[in-house]
Design a protein that fits this description.
This protein is of the alpha+beta class. The protein has two domains: 1-109 and 200-281, no CATH class; 296-389, no CATH class. Helices cover 40% and strands 21% of the residues. α3 crosses α4.
Length: 398
């Protein structure tokens, strides 16, 4: 008999797994980052907040210390080719899974300025050689690569972000995937790169098949119940390969019915209590993993709230509705696990103004909780915070 769950139970489960109901002790920092499948770090300020809302008593400076001094975390290219923070002792597992993943066939035509396989291999090897025993800024690394294989790598030929990147930049992610590069501490406002085996110590060999299965387990515990298609979208994996991966774990998975929607969960997780989400209110930053990995979108962001966001003009030329905009790049207010508003903050000397625009009516009790949540953001940032309910002008980080 298929077990039945409600969406309220699903949100309650996910919130608990993400430590958004009760923050974890500081000593469990690495466990928290690993359990949610890494922290999106394209914008480091957001990554720091994502960790601090999950770990008790953490400040942004504490995260910096863990990353660059204690080195319990590592910053590298990860899921979907974007920058992530992972537990340092799990780097090999994540890289093995990413290397073993079958990527979606987006196009057989190479993008303008993109390196072919042979040239990419040459650049990747040059990056690894240049970083051997060194911590280099991006510009320094580019010059070292050019010295090794030719100045052609410095040609700005790859269209990106309204401009052009040097050809060699497109290979940094590949070098990271092969374990030859990760981020080091910033030098002023410039990023640096190092060799992971020298920054963190020797890295163990991990089977790609074993790593992929472990990633599915982690994903289903943190974001389940889910479908193979949702996992494929989140991990940027070819859908048929994702279905085969789920089948390989058939003995560990059970099908559940979530209000008429058939999905998969880990059998071991179903042995626990699934308490409905009630009385939960949290502010999470842009690109927070709870939102980015949360499917289905029409449950995460109810249609009436999408309509209100659309009426408010919360769309851009690259979206046809507010749902894609609210599903990751924008800081959001979560009430009982679903998106109920957007927010932003602004520093004013030693004070912090936290502005929230609800997309659903807030009870008086939730308004009081929102005051406490704003104060919590101030504590994380080391500022005295005040809350204001007003129109929010924050836009996606593109």
């Amino acid at each position: 008999m298929v077990r039945s769950l409600t969406w309220s139970q699903v949100w309650g489960w996910r919130l608990a797994r993400h430590n958004l109901l009760e923050a974890a002790p500081r000593e469990q920092l690495s466990d928290v980052v690993g359990a949610v499948c890494g922290i999106h770090a394209q914008v480091m300020a957001s990554a720091e907040l994502s960790i601090c809302v999950r770990v008790a008593g953490m400040t942004r400076q504490d995260v910096v210390t863990e990353l660059w001094q204690r080195r319990r975390l590592v910053k590298t290219y990860g899921i979907r080719g974007t920058i992530h923070l992972f537990p340092a002792d799990e780097l090999s597992m994540w890289l093995a899974a990413l290397r073993a993943s079958t990527q979606p066939d987006r196009s057989t035509r190479r993008q303008e300025g993109e390196l072919d396989a042979d040239h990419e291999n040459s650049v990747v090897q040059a990056i690894g050689d240049a970083l051997d025993g060194h911590r280099l800024t991006r510009d320094e690394l580019g010059r070292e690569v050019a010295d090794r294989i030719g100045v052609w790598v410095l040609e700005e030929a790859f269209p990106a972000w309204g401009g052009s990147w040097p050809r060699w930049w497109t290979a940094i992610g590949a070098a990271a995937l092969r374990g030859l590069a990760c981020f080091g501490p910033n030098q002023g406002n410039r990023v640096t790169f190092v060799r992971p085996n020298q920054w963190l110590g020797p890295q163990p060999q991990v089977s790609g098949e074993h790593a992929l299965r472990e990633v599915v387990r982690r994903y289903l515990t943190a974001y389940g119940p889910a479908t193979a298609g949702e996992f494929a979208q989140w991990f940027s994996m070819e859908p048929r390969a994702a279905k085969a991966l789920f089948r390989s774990l058939a003995g560990e998975l059970e099908e559940v019915d979530v209000q008429g929607d058939r999905r998969w969960a880990r059998a071991v997780d179903l042995s626990h209590a699934w308490t409905p989400a009630r009385d939960s209110l949290r502010l999470v930053p842009r690109f927070d993993c709870f939102v980015v990995g949360g499917f289905p979108r029409d449950r995460l962001i109810p249609p009436d709230r999408v309509e209100r966001a659309s009426a408010r003009g919360m769309t851009t030329t690259w979206t046809k509705s507010a749902r894609p905009l609210l599903s990751g790049p924008t800081p959001v207010l979560l009430v009982n696990g679903s998106v109920a508003g957007v927010w932003e903050y602004k520093r004013q000397g030693r004070r912090l103004e936290v502005a929230v625009e609800p997309l659903a009516r807030l009870s008086a009790r939730n308004e009081r909780r929102l005051q406490a949540e704003a104060a919590r953001m101030g504590a994380i940032l080391g500022l005295e915070a005040s809350l204001v309910l007003r129109e929010v002008r924050t836009r996606p980080h593109l």
